[in-house]
Every structure is written in structure tokens, then in C-alpha cells.
């Protein structure tokens, strides 16, 4: 190999950056975007959106060894990492300054305990929006309020008078904020919001501060509501509802050009035409 070819190869290696493969408006991918924004390093990771309405391409399946779950991160040297919390920790360690995670062992443990609460919180929210039995609406609403009450109690215990878990928007906020944003679909399709009661005051203050933080503005409520319409009708991951030819997650027509979906998820099945998909 000539010296010029060697130099080009070295330059290409230097220009490589980690690449994130994710579906549209993926909350788990947004966690990573928020982390990078907090560090001022948005350009240090590439983001590749994968069309969820189509089978995974062979080249991607080859990288992920046949698994379809996303996001997945390809490192600079071509290795693959999966699971958003694993990738989040990897990027925190790869780009340690400025630190987003707490450095003191006790504080890191506290934010770890709170982050461990996100699984049940997320599952309840998605079960709620995908529910198709109008007679179970109150049951799912109570379940969602119980999840918020748990977060409220945790915040009251560890930082009762503050805004965030600690002094600033940090690791726990990075984990939960994308979910607060996805749950805009609960506000729209289920008329859900936190009661104006003391038992939710602390978590409401936390949620509202997270939603308005400058590092977390990658998505809008309009985009969430439009793309997640099929979830509200009980179908996710790009699958098709009966009588529909297009998923609400299709790339085209662009979501900005589509009308707002009907709010009534129980009494009306919107057509492709009504949704601006055909």
C-alpha cells in the first residue's frame, strides 16, 4: 500500500464516529441524544433512523447478529452494543467530561435506584395508551397515578424542596424525560394529567422542568401524537391495523403535513386518508 493510501486509511479511521441505529422518535435513543446535548457533543455520534414499517435490512441484521431490537450502537471499530441503559453508560464513560452521572458513590446509588423505577413506569404508560377496553380506562389511570406517586415519594425523600433529583438536570432526568414526552399521547388520547394535589406536586415540578429543559427538545408533542396513533389503537412497532395500508410510523408523508388524528381512540377507527397517509 502506498504512503498516500495509508494516509487516507488513517484519515478515514480518524473520521469514524459511533453510529446509533434507531426507530423514529425512539425514546431510548432520545436518552442518548439528551446525554450528548448535556455534554455539548451532539456531533460525536451519528444517528441512523431505521424504517420500522419494513423488515430490518440484511446489512443491519448482520451487524446485530439477527436481533431486531433497537437502538443499537456501532462503535468506532465496528462492534455492536445493545440496550439503551448500557449504551447510555458507555457514552458517559467514553465522553466523561462534563459528567452527567453523579460521581459520589451514594449519590450515584440514589440516581441508580430512581432509574431502576423507569421499567414499571414505562410499561404502565404503554399498556395504558394501547388499551382498547373503554371499561378499563379508570383501572389504567389509577395504575399510572400509582407510578407517578412512587416517583413523587422518592423525590420528596431525597430532595423535597428542589426541582431535579439533585441540583441539576442529570442522569435520572436523562432516563425519564423521553418517557414524559412519549406520555403526551396519554394526555391526547386518554385526557390524562396529574391531579392538582399535594401527593403529585413534587413529581409534577420535576416532570415540567424536565420537559422544558433545553437539552431535551428533540421531539414535539405533535410529532408524538401523530406517529403514535397506531399505538393508541392497540398496534405497535409498525404493524398494520385492519383496513389500513400504511402505518402511522411511515416516513412519508412527513408528519408535519398530516392532520392531527382523532382523539377518540375507542369509538372511531381513522382511515389512512383521515390520518393524511394516503
CATH overall fold name of the largest domain: Glutathione S-transferase Yfyf (Class Pi), Chain A, domain 2
Question: What percentage of amino acids are in beta strands?
Answer: 5-15%
Give me the Rg, rounded.
Answer: 21 Å
CATH architecture of the largest domain: Up-down Bundle
What does this structure look like?
The chain is mainly alpha-helical and 278 residues long. The chain has three domains: 19-94, 3-Layer(aba) Sandwich (Glutaredoxin), CATH 3.40.30; 105-212, Up-down Bundle (Glutathione S-transferase Yfyf (Class Pi), Chain A, domain 2); 221-275, Glutaredoxin (3-Layer(aba) Sandwich). 49% of the residues lie in helices and 5% in strands. It has twelve helices and four strands; from the N terminus they run αβαβαββααααααααα. It has helices at residues 3-15, 27-39, 58-64, 84-94, 105-115, 118-130, 137-158, 171-182, 184-190, 198-212, 221-227, 229-232, and strands at residues 19-22, 46-49, 72-74, 80-82. Strands 2-1-3-4 form a four-stranded mixed sheet, with helices on one face. α2 packs parallel to α4 (84-94), α5 runs parallel beside α8 (171-182) and α6 packs antiparallel against α7 (137-158). It is globular. The protein starts with a helix and ends in a 46-residue tail after the last helix. Mean pLDDT is 93; it is low at 1-14.
Amino acid at each position: 500500500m502506498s504512503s498516500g493510501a495509508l494516509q487516507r486509511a488513517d484519515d478515514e479511521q480518524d473520521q469514524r464516529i459511533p453510529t446509533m441505529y434507531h426507530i423514529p422518535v425512539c425514546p431510548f435513543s432520545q436518552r442518548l441524544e439528551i446525554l450528548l446535548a448535556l455534554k455539548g457533543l451532539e456531533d460525536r455520534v451519528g444517528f441512523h433512523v431505521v424504517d420500522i414499517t419494513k423488515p430490518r435490512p440484511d446489512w443491519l441484521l448482520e451487524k446485530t447478529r439477527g436481533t431486531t431490537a433497537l437502538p443499537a450502537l456501532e462503535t468506532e471499530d465496528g462492534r455492536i452494543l445493545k440496550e439503551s441503559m448500557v449504551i447510555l453508560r458507555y457514552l458517559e464513560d467514553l465522553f466523561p467530561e462534563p459528567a452527567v452521572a453523579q460521581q459520589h458513590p451514594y449519590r450515584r446509588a440514589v440516581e441508580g435506584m430512581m432509574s431502576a423505577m423507569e421499567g414499571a413506569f414505562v410499561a404502565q404508560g404503554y399498556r395504558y395508551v394501547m388499551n382498547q377496553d373503554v371499561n378499563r380506562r379508570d383501572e389504567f389511570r389509577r395504575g399510572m397515578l400509582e407510578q407517578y406517586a412512587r416517583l413523587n415519594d422518592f423525590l420528596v425523600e431525597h430532595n423535597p424542596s428542589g426541582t431535579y433529583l439533585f441540583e441539576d438536570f442529570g442522569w435520572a432526568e436523562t432516563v425519564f424525560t423521553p418517557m414524559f414526552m412519549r406520555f403526551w399521547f396519554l394526555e391526547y388520547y386518554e385526557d390524562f394529567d396529574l391531579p392538582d394535589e399535594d401527593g403529585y406536586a413534587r413529581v409534577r415540578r420535576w416532570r415540567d422542568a424536565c420537559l422544558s429543559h433545553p437539552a431535551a427538545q428533540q421531539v414535539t408533542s405533535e410529532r408524538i401524537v401523530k406517529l403514535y396513533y397506531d399505538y393508541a389503537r392497540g398496534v405497535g412497532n409498525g404493524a398494520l391495523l385492519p383496513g389500513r395500508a400504511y402505518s402511522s410510523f411511515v416516513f412519508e408523508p412527513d408528519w408535519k403535513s398530516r392532520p392531527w388524528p382523532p382523539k377518540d381512540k375507542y369509538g372511531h377507527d381513522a382511515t389512512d386518508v383521515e390520518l393524511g397517509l394516503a
